[in-house]
Amino acid sequence: MAQPGHQPQRKCVACGERSPKRGLLRLVRTPADGLQVDPTGRVAGRGAYLCRSQTCWEKALRRPGRLEQALRLTISAEERERLAQAIHSLGSQ
C-alpha cells in the first residue's frame, strides 16, 4: 500500500529526468494493438515513459534506441510517424 503523499517516480527514456508518474506520458506495447500512447498509464503491457515536452518526444523518435530497448521491440517508420502525429494532437489539447 502506498504511503500518504507518496508519488511514484518514473524516468523519461529521452532525457533521463525523473518525474512523478502522473507528469509523464506512457507508451505501451501490447500483444493485441502493438504500440500506442497510454494517457491513463493503466493499459496492460510493457511501457516506457516520456516527458510531455515535444522536445523529448522528438528526441525519442529521432533516435529511438532507448525507446526500443525499453519497450523491447523495433519501431517501424510507420509507427514512428503515427506516434509523432499522436504527440502533436496531445500538444494541441
Mean pLDDT: 88
Q: Into which percentage range does the β-strand content fall?
A: 25-35%
* N-C termini distance: 34 Å
Please give the radius of gyration in angstroms.
13 Å
CATH class: Alpha Beta
In the CATH hierarchy, the third-tier topology is known as: Hypothetical Cytosolic Protein, Chain: A
What is the name of the CATH architecture? Answer: 2-Layer Sandwich
Number of helices: 3
**Count of folded domains:** 1
Largest sheet: 3 strands, antiparallel
Helicity range of the residues?
A: 25-40%
Structural class given helices, strands, pairing? alpha+beta
Protein described:
This protein has 93 residues and is of the alpha+beta class. It has a single domain (9-91), classed as Hypothetical Cytosolic Protein, Chain: A. It is built from three helices and five strands. The chain has a three-stranded antiparallel β-sheet. The longest helix has 15 residues, at 77-91. The relative contact order is 0.18. The mean pLDDT is 88.
